[in-house]
Design brief:
Length: 337
């Protein structure tokens, strides 16, 4: 199946190139980008085969897309108009940007500060983590892939809320991400000397992934992100109020284990995982327990922000959209040590 990557020059786009290069069904026929158009793929993504490395990055032009499926990996505000044109041409879309994740234009404007580029498309996409929307993806024309922090959080929290183990009250999320989560453009905050050997919180007044978490979980969420001194990976700690005194560590782990018992990319365990375990992969590893003294569930979730948090998650969902095994092209990915 012919596919195109729109936004191939950023870190997420580069990860898409890396994964699609070995996919047995998806055949990338074009790579488009606003930035770095005219350069060779091999200049951005080391380790590609010689023929793929020589492929050019073309300027973004949805009218030039001759493919059945498009992966859009663009900053917020840039993909809405392009998706409108792609859909008019009958192209199905996996959108890794933020433009279609929220259904309400006023909420978009509040969090992103601008008018929405394609308000008529709001509410038209399937939104959610692939493990939670498998049935909907089979017929989806557009899938809005959740943000990286959102994916890590929702995988751990949603089954506990839906099962009634957690009260529908304030959920507190603290998460740390590697620097690739800030994008490929160098800034003062991502400069080596400002990131190395330290961790800092940011967006204390509210992060744009917060309304996504609230929408997918259906509860109030207080989210604080942190920037860590490493390239890729997210570790999220989620604190949820227990529904009642009968909720214990065994019941929490049992709910998570049953929720993901047939999921090939999600592992549930007793001990907290490390981001190094999921580096370069589409895996998520969850652990949870109960703090009886204060009456809360404490869950932790680790993913690779470029893998399960973006590009590899996108390929997993695209597999489901076209009716092939969701693990196709994602087997064996990951790096250790």
């Amino acid at each position: 199946m012919d596919v195109v990557v729109v936004g191939a020059s950023g870190f997420v786009g580069q990860e898409l190139v890396r994964v699609l290069a070995r996919h047995p069904v998806f055949e990338p026929v074009a790579f488009q980008a606003h930035q770095r158009a005219g350069r060779r793929l091999g200049e951005l993504v080391p380790g590609l085969s010689v023929d793929l490395a020589e492929r050019p990055i073309e300027p973004i032009d949805p009218r030039a897309v001759a493919a059945e499926l498009a992966f859009c990996a663009l900053p917020h505000g840039h993909s809405g108009g392009i998706i409108r044109e792609l859909r008019a041409r009958g192209v199905r879309v996996v959108d890794l940007g933020a433009d279609l994740r929220l259904a309400d234009e006023a909420t978009w404007r509040r969090w992103y500060g601008d008018d929405h580029p394609a308000p008529e498309l709001l509410g038209s996409a399937v939104v959610g983590v692939a493990e939670h929307v498998r049935t909907e993806l089979a017929s989806a024309q557009v899938w809005a892939v959740p943000g990286c922090y959102v994916t890590a959080t929702v995988l751990a929290a949603k089954p506990l809320i839906d099962a009634g183990l957690a009260r529908r009250d304030l959920v507190v999320v603290d998460a740390i991400s590697g620097v690739t989560g800030a994008g490929s453009a160098a800034t003062e905050t991502t400069h080596f000397v400002n990131v190395a050997e330290g961790v800092r919180a940011y967006a204390l007044g509210g992060h744009r992934h917060t309304p996504e978490m609230r929408s997918l979980l259906g509860v109030p969420v207080r989210f604080t992100p942190h920037l860590g001194p490493y390239s890729r990976g997210i570790a999220a700690t989620i604190t949820l109020p227990v529904a009642d005194a009968t909720v214990d560590a065994d019941s929490v782990r049992d709910v998570l284990a049953r929720a993901y018992g047939t999921s090939p990319f999600v592992e549930v365990r007793e001990t907290p995982p490390s981001t190094r375990e999921v580096r370069g992969s589409n895996r998520a590893v969850l652990a949870a327990t109960v703090d009886d003294e204060v009456g809360v569930i404490v869950a932790t979730s680790v993913i690779d922000n470029l893998g399960k948090g973006a590009a590899q998650h996108a390929v997993q969902g695209a597999n489901l959209m076209v009716g092939v095994d969701e693990v196709l092209g994602l087997e064996g990915l990951g790096v250790w040590p």
